[in-house]
Amino acid sequence: MSVDSAFAALRERLERDHREATAAAFVLGNEALVGTGLAALDAVLGGGFPRGTVATLEGPPSSGRSTLAARLLAAATRRGLGALIGVDLFPPALAAAGVRLDRLLVVPVTEPVAAVRAADIIVRSGAFTVVVLPTLPSGRGTGSAAWSRLASLTHRANALLVAVGDEASIELRYVATVRLETALERVRWNGPAGHLGEFAGFDLRAVVRKHKRAAPVGDALVRCDTFEERPPLVDVRERTLTSIEGGLGEAQMRRIASAIH
What we know:
By secondary structure, the chain is an alpha/beta fold. It has a single domain (27-259), classed as Rossmann fold (3-Layer(aba) Sandwich). 33% of the residues lie in helices and 26% in strands.
């Protein structure tokens, strides 16, 4: 055996037997990640969202945060179970996004404390891969003790707890392993300008604000098309949004459609 081959064999053995002290300790395998299926986003996340952690999807309404949540639930329900607590997502749209509704538990709570209690029970069961809930305002029953308990339960269950909302509270920011901020950057319409145009998709900018297990800075431009089956698009128009100061509601979206020429 040559010196080079002997050295390579020794290095392989050290990395296998003492992985926690080598560079391999900072590379998560696919089984330890929940990917979104969006290549650009998964790349800046180091392959996907790490399991056993709390993550946030932050941004104004209509910024793409729900789209990413649906992607994670689709990934979870392909092989296991997912849960949706107190977040209004349209079931037919979830199904079109690839979510197995027969493997999705929906808990329609309205009170923040009820959402925390539901998450505690669901994560503690160890049966769910991804659990989605609102970011929740700070208050009695939703402070640091609650989020610390949920983070500990999530770690033990090897699950992914995803909080979705405008902005994470200080307590949630502290326990979160990954914080992702979303913003709508471009919209696409098919057909004529005005109300006869058909919404065809959008591009969202996802910025990694925090990542305890990878580089903390990075962003990705993600193209999102509508999930529903439709004939091929023949007259697509798009508009780049140069400034987003808040979420886009239906009225704003209609105005965007009317402005596309």
